[in-house]
From TrEMBL:
A matching Pfam family: EAL
Top-rank taxon, per record: Bacteria
Positions of transmembrane segments: none
Protein name: EAL domain-containing protein
Residue span(s) of domain EAL: 4-251
Molecular function GO labels: cyclic-guanylate-specific phosphodiesterase activity
Amino acid sequence: MDKNPPACNRCRDNAPLDFSFSMAFQPIVDIAAGEVWGWEALVRGEHGEGAHSVLSRITDDNRYAFDQQCRIRAIELAHRLGMPGRLSINFLPNAVYEPKACIRATVEAASRVGFPLERIQFEITEVEEVGTDGHLRRIVDEYRAMGLGTAIDDFGAGYAGLNLLVRIQPDVLKLDMDLIRNIDQDRVRRLIVGQMAALARELPCLLIAEGIETLEEAHCLRELGITLHQGYLYARPAFEALPQPAAEVMTALRAA
């Protein structure tokens, strides 16, 4: 297997950006095991400013370099912070020009700091239709060949639906937070999410519920068999740090 694919002229890792940025991390909690399963890397300004301060500066000319440097920054920070578990990094498929070449910087960064590739997963976060079937398939196939995981973010919203699931068959599905909001009070949401949980078991793939804000939502999701949780209930994203889930929340879930 070629672990050092050739460089891509459009997304080379040394392409300059005229702005700086960093990352915040939010835990993904395995409530069945009572521990953190992994962390999602979320882009922030150089001094912790919100994501919009960075994303508003992305153009067609710099999106390839930005995508590469996001991966490198997330991996380097994860290593510096001693991150256990998985590292989840967002990416836009349309920012990947040539999959085999564009993954080079990711592999090199992980190798340089000793972060195992099998602990990295990429979340497809495209809010618009993502390229062609062939292009997206090549991206996923190349990532898997390297030992990287793949996830569909915001599953159940917009284009992140069943068609995308059929196209790439990811390792992880992350349920859209609109499906989670007040799920304990909404029979229709419970029915839909329950069917998604059954689908994930059959595929099989892991299912993560994100955007959880209340204990009632967490209890309801556990009853539906979903035990990988992410949201403000457990911890808000922390700038250049690895926040731990709130102890009182974990205690309450164990007691229930």
